[in-house]
Design the sequence.
């Protein structure tokens, strides 16, 4: 079973949902048969490189501070209940993540897919790290064991720009208009951050559909078992 999750690294529901999904997979009876793949989807491409606080972004969108807190504080609580520890959806700065996703694509090619995405979510939502400028990302690459000079070269050349754009376009063709967006086996979509029980239920349903029990409408005859006994 393949589960694809389209996310932006600065999307507060995404950071919580990636952990919730991981916990749901661990609870699933066939966890060893599940592959989770992160896909890129940039939600705020127009933010200036110097960044903007979540509070200011919400005010610019016409929300009051009270409305912002009523939406985002529960996300912090939900993330911490999943085991994140110190999740910050409100008290943080956001920025454009085009280069961020290109670094994640490079990390994937270097065999660091899950490590890079998890570390990126942790850095942003736990430590309010700003990870979108060239220097910030090169330092992050070094921290997760990537070659800093190679990472710089990748980001300067924009080698992964088209790949990242194609990932987002594919998600949009499949029905994504925001993040998170989850697709199971390229057929079953889940839009938004759902609870862990819903993820587990979805995996079980898809598993059962792909592994139907054998129907035996004509009954059973005489058989011998692996213990050497025969039932006649």
Sequence:
């Amino acid at each position: 079973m393949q589960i694809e999750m389209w996310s932006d690294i600065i999307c507060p529901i995404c950071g919580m949902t990636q952990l919730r999904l991981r916990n749901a997979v661990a609870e699933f009876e066939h966890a060893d048969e599940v592959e989770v793949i992160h896909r890129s989807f940039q939600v705020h491409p127009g933010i200036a490189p110097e960044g903007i606080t979540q509070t200011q972004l919400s005010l610019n969108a016409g929300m009051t501070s009270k409305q912002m807190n009523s939406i985002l504080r529960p996300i912090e609580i939900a993330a911490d209940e999943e085991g994140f520890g110190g999740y910050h959806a409100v008290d943080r700065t956001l920025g454009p993540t085009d280069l961020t996703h290109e670094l994640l694509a490079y990390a994937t090619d270097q065999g660091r897919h899950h490590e890079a995405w998890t570390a990126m979510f942790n850095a942003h939502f736990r430590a309010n790290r700003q990870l979108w400028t060239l220097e910030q990302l090169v330092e992050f690459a070094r921290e997760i064991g990537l070659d800093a000079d190679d990472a710089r070269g990748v980001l300067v050349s924009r080698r992964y720009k088209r790949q990242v754009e194609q990932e987002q376009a594919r998600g949009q063709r499949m029905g994504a208009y925001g993040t998170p967006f989850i697709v199971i086996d390229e057929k079953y979509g889940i839009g938004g951050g759902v609870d862990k029980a819903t993820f587990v239920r979805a995996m079980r349903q898809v598993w059962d559909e792909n592994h139907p029990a054998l129907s035996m409408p004509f009954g059973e005859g005489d058989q011998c078992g692996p213990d050497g006994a025969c039932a006649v």
